Each structure stands twice: as C-alpha cells, then as structure tokens.
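User: Sequence recovery, please. Input:
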C-alpha cells in the first residue's frame, strides 16, 4: 500500500535511526498479506490485493523516509522528527495511531524484484540494490 496505494504512514513500535532521515528505502512486500483491517483498507483503496497470491512479494518499490509521528498522552499527533516542510495527513486513513514512519516520493517498480525479506531494517543484497537503482535512479538505497 505504500508504493501502490494511498498509504504514506507505516505503523511501527520503533523509529529508524536519525541518520536515515531523508534516505530512500527499498519497500519489500512480505510473504503474507495483512487482512486484519481489510474492509477498512478496501474503503480507502478499492484496488487493494484481496489474497496473499495477489500481493506482490520481494522489493516492490522505493519511498523516501521523511519523518516520524507519535501521539502524546492525550492522543494528539505530533511530529517526532522530520525534514523541513513535512506534512502528515492523519485523517487520510491507514494510520492506526501511535508511532509511525512518514514516507513521500513513493514509487513502485514496474516488476517486483525477488528478494528474501527480514524483520527490521536490513541490507539489500548488492545484486538486488543494483536492479532497484537501474529501475529507479535514486542513487544509494537505504533498506526497509
């Protein structure tokens, strides 16, 4: 949903290191599609994949990490860190509240690149990084 749909926020319980701010991350589609909020997802993104086999796997695109958002004790959102001019549409759906990463410049690859994923931030294999860069000229690619 980050590179093919309307999702600009990725909920996580942790934030990337500050040095990642402004970096382009490779976005990896996992083995299983998240169905927990599927009806809500369809309302926001009618073209969402409906089955695991419809959801692309491997590196599916790139997005620039531009900041992080959290909520205070009253449930009000606030930017934890961000590049100048970062705007967050918290009313646009796809945000479960709490901590989230903010992405812009979200670009899908024409064809997913097969690549085994991992939890957390991880390093793309060099051959996969070369393929990503050749498909979308972004220079060095950070990983997610």
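Assistant: Recovered sequence (144 residues):
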């Amino acid at each position: 949903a980050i590179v093919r749909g309307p999702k600009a926020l990725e909920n996580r319980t942790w934030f990337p290191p500050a040095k990642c701010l402004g970096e382009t991350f490779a976005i990896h589609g996992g083995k299983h599609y998240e169905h927990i909020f599927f009806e809500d997802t369809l309302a926001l993104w009618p073209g969402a994949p409906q089955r695991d086999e419809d959801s692309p796997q491997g590196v599916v695109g790139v997005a620039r990490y531009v900041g992080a958002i959290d909520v205070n004790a009253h449930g009000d959102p606030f930017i934890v860190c961000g590049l100048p001019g970062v705007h967050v549409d918290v009313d646009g759906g796809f945000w479960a509240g709490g901590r989230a990463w903010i992405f812009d410049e979200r670009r899908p690859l024409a064809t997913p690149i097969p690549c085994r994923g991992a939890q957390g931030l991880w390093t793309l294999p060099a051959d996969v990084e070369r393929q990503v860069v050749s498909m979308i000229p972004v220079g060095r690619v950070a990983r997610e």
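The mean pLDDT is 83.
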